[in-house]
Amino acid sequence: MSVIRVERRGSVGRVVLARPERKNAIDREMAEALFEAFGRCESDPQVRIVHLTSDGDDFCAGLDVAALARMLDDPPETQRADAEAFGRVLLAIRALMKPVVCSVRGRALSSGAGLALASDIVLAHEDAEFGFTEVRLGFVPALVMPMLRRTVGEKRAADLVLTGRVIAAEEAEHVGLVSRVMPAASYDADVDSVLEGLARLSPTSLALTKWLHYKLDSLSFEDGIAAGVVTNVEARATEDFRDAIRRLTAPE
């Protein structure tokens, strides 16, 4: 049985965590399958938007504790390879030149919350919960902390990772972990509406916008403006932009 399901609905590629009997907990097999799934979405010219979602009541309970238990006596190089497998998934989400929209029902904990963090837009069900609970296991949320600090700031990140507390969707939106919280009654329809709206936009515009958005993390203010100028000029040369301007300025 596959732990990941990859589907396409129109121009939306769906990457589905499909291990509900384990609350979609992540082991090496799932991490490698996720990496492959995002690669498939990147290479499929019919996919404009990637939707990361899940089967079952919980989005993802984090790392698979049973898998970690089996690795307790493995050598450091094996432990490193296991950690790197999940790290590649986070990098793949950010490197995708297509927006990744993550919809979260139920709990998104530790590495599950990390998957949401890596995504570009997070749409949370009103009953969703988020937490970086590694400290409760004597562990460290090491791979997700670089994103968490950038997303919520130093003090809020410290509060979340040092206490390991689990927060409701409303607080997650308040601190910046979540893009939008959506009501239970219309959740599926609201998520579909966001995906359909994005899919109607220019793929080249979305790709350039996403690239610059994250590139700015590593640039000074002056270099950010310079990168913005370069991207602005690149966008002017795309057919999507040129066609839009022609339509807007065409005589009636």
| N→C terminal distance | 58 Å
Summed up, the helix count is 11
Q: Give the rounded overall mean pLDDT.
A: 96
Could you name the CATH class of the largest domain? Alpha Beta
State the CATH superfamily name of the largest domain: 2-enoyl-CoA Hydratase, Chain A, domain 1
- Roughly how much helix do the residues carry, as a percent range? 40-55%
CATH topology of the largest domain: 2-enoyl-CoA Hydratase, Chain A, domain 1
Rg, rounded, reads 19 Å
Shape summary: globular
Secondary-structure element order, N to C: EEHEHHEEHEEHHEHEHHHH
Q: Low-confidence parts lasting 5 or more residues at pLDDT below 50? A: none
**β-strand number:** 9
CATH architecture of the largest domain: Alpha-Beta Complex
Instruction: Give a short account of the largest sheet.
Output: 6 strands, mixed
Strand content: 15-25%
Class based on secondary structure composition and strand pairing:
alpha/beta
The overall number of domains is 2
Order of strands side by side in the largest beta sheet? 1-2-3-4-6-9
Topology at a glance:
Blueprint: E1 4-9, E2 12-17, H1 28-43, E3 49-54, H2 65-70, H3 76-95, E4 100-104, E5 107-109, H4 111-118, E6 121-125, E7 129-131, H5 145-152, H6 154-163, E8 166-168, H7 169-175, E9 180-182, H8 187-199, H9 203-215, H10 221-236, H11 239-249
Parallel strand pairs: 2-3, 3-4, 4-6, 5-7, 6-9
Antiparallel strand pairs: 1-2, 7-8
Helix pairs in contact: 1-3, 3-4, 5-6, 9-10
